[in-house]
Amino acid sequence: METSETSIGAGLVAPAEAGTPTVSIVIPAFNEAGRIAETIRKIEAFVRRAPFLTEIIVVDDGSRDDTSGIVAQLQTKGLRLIRNKENHGKGHTVRQGVRAASGKYVLFTDADLSAPIEELNKLLDVATSEGADIVIGSRNLDRRCIEKHQSRLRELGGMFFNLMVRWFLGLSLRDTQCGFKLFHREKSRRIFEKQTTPGFGFDPELLFLAKRYGLKIRETPVRWSHAEGSKVKFLRHGIHMFFDLIRIRWNAIAGRYS
Known about the structure:
Elements: E1 3-8, H1 15-18, E2 23-29, H2 36-49, E3 54-61, H3 67-73, E4 79-84, H4 90-100, E5 105-109, H5 120-130, E6 134-138, E7 146-148, H6 152-169, E8 180-184, H7 185-194, H8 202-212, E9 217-221, E10 224-225, H9 234-253
Parallel strand pairs: 2-3, 2-5, 3-4, 6-9, 7-10
Antiparallel strand pairs: 1-4, 5-8, 6-8
Helix pairs in contact: 6-9, 7-8
């Protein structure tokens, strides 16, 4: 695997001078040239108002468009770019970003910001008030928070997949697939080291491992709006994700997560 990392704009000040970031924001990106600049601008505006230090890590997973070039031109303080020469999958990309992060907490958010970045405050509140190691933004705890729905077919598919997650992995969570999750970096390090799923089915594996290792997981409702241009192909990726659940269960039975 070939990767490269670039500090953009003012870059990160060394921790000894500026202190460790409270939150590292990881954005997995694949062919996001059409919206990545606007996404980073929205995050930058939020970061300027935030009462804590942050860093932003964009992981370009072998994009065939100018995603990396656009990010490289931005003058956003604390912005880092990791470039993969080839496409490996969202799970692989998130894992890269989390392992490169230095914050106390790591948020990974989809590049389309379906959940507005301001919802990070809710996740942090739950993490600090309840001592949660992982906080999941959920679309299903309070569906009034959904401002723009997906197609009915996608919503039904998501509900079915959640049932499969409950059945195969014993997770009682309402929404494992929302791309807006906060992790305590040090406490979650082990689950990312054990993660084996490179594609879209990585979320259930991480949460299964978190439960297995006794991490405290909480869900909280977040505002969410469907954004066009999803990289998830309903049938093709849905089949892959189903077989990921079988493989995760088999890994557990075979002792590969011990």
